[in-house]
Design brief:
4-stranded antiparallel beta sheet; alpha+beta; two-stranded antiparallel ribbon; elongated; 108 residues; 2 helices
């Protein structure tokens, strides 16, 4: 199965802790029904900061938003604009194809 034939898309957005609500609000404004927020921790080279000689790894939030194929671009654009992801270091957003989904309580 190729990317285009997948019925759904999973929008994955990773932001610094405390910014997930901006992402969820932007996605809802663009038509998403909701999302799942997962607390995470960054491990990249630039993720660790020093404070009083103690290494601090910034906490992250990962937002998973399952959407229809047709609405993915619009929702991703809204997240980019309203959650400030055009600012370097603010976060990352990418889209993955989803070939099967079960347990949905409402249409996407």
């Amino acid at each position: 199965m190729n990317y285009e034939s997948a019925e759904f898309r999973m929008i994955v957005t990773i932001v610094n802790r405390g910014y997930a609500e901006f992402v969820v609000d932007a996605a809802r404004e663009a038509g998403a029904k909701g999302g799942t927020i997962i607390h995470a921790r960054g491990t990249g080279v630039h993720e660790t900061e020093k404070f009083l000689n103690i290494s601090i790894t910034p906490e992250k939030e990962m937002i998973l938003t399952l959407v229809s194929k047709e609405s993915a671009k619009k929702i991703t654009r809204e997240i980019l604009e309203k959650a400030g992801l055009k600012t370097p270091g603010r976060g990352i957003c990418f889209v993955l194809p989803v070939t099967d989904a079960v347990g949905l309580t409402h249409p996407l």
